[in-house]
Amino acid sequence: MAINTIKSTTPAASIRRPTQDRGRKKFEAALDAAERLLENMEPADMSIYDIAKALEASPPSVYHFFPEVSLVFVALAERYLTQLQSVSLDVDEPVATWADLLDLLFERIRGILNKRTPVRKVLLGSGYSPEVRQRDLAGYAIFAKDILDALNRHFELPNVPQLADRIEEVLAINDAMWMLSFYRHRAIDDEGARRARNAYLRLYIPEILPRRTP
């Protein structure tokens, strides 16, 4: 099972989204060029002119879709969040505890972030913006429900009121810890985030839960 599709509740109206195939190809090509630049450039240092040069196009052709360079990072964030939604939450092997299961799920996301520099920079680094944050937050509730479903497939969960909300809060805690790790090390170390995730959920879920029969 993959994470459900995240739909932004506040679309970036300033992004001029193409409706024709030709326009969509140019739109995606501009994002591809920006992504290539992010391998060795910080978002704060990037301009529309840099993207146009990498694209071998005129600056107005990029401005047509993105009147401000910050909107490029918003569109990239949408692209990356959609890609992260495709990460499977299915765990076939048996896990001893719910904490072990969570560790497996979060490790899949962390692996992608650590392998892809542009994704880290946009979602966790200096390219982070209120607009990007909005899109990230829009996915918390959906991702929390998917994690809760994964936990229910492996364990008999106690009747905890609004447990999905607690898991949503865990996602916020995790993001904050990963952002701090990226700021310190330019990569994501999970040890602090793992401790914070598990410590918070232990306030609501017993350490040992009955396992469901496969």
Describe this structure in words.
By secondary structure, the chain is mainly α. Helix content is 62%, strand content 0%. It is elongated and about 60 Å long. Residues 1-13 have low confidence and may be disordered.
Helix content: 55-70%
What profile does the largest beta sheet have?
Answer: none
Q: Domains counted in the coordinates: how many?
A: 2
Number of strands: 0
- What pattern of helices and strands is seen along the backbone? HHHHHHHHH
Q: Whole-number average pLDDT?
A: 87
Task: State the shape.
Answer: elongated
Distance between the termini: 16 Å
SS summary, helix count? 9
* Rg, Cα atoms, Å: 19 Å
Low-pLDDT parts are 1-13
**Percent range for β-strand residues:** under 5%
Q: What is the gist of this entry?
A:
The protein contains nine helices and no strands.
